[in-house]
Sequence to fold (107 residues):
Amino acid sequence: PTRRSSDLSVVLLAVAEIIRVYSEGPRVYAQTPAGAFALKARLYEMERRLEGRDFVRISASELVNARMIEGMDFSLTGTIRLSLRGGIQTYVSRRRVAEIKKLFDVR
Fold:
């Protein structure tokens, strides 16, 4: 489980419920169906913790749970738009497009 600190409360998050982990400014958040939770860990630390658990880095500021991807839009030049559970839309950085295509066996 991942923990979040907000004021004086800590919430345990089940890894299977995390849709994505992303940074916004200096903060890192875990997005779940229940909302976004601030984390104390850095994004690279979360990437290490979640290694081997279906999480994929799609940009310098975001990891997504591959099991939460509901669709991929390849119509945009140089990037992929991902549709995630909960109506979340996000984009794969140009640098990571080939890696994501290979991972999902897309040509």
Remarks:
- The CA atoms of residues 21 and 43 lie 7 Å apart.
- The mean pLDDT is 91.
- The beta strands are 2-6, 9-13, 20-24, 27-32, 35-39, 55-59, 62-65, 69-73, 80-84, 88-92.
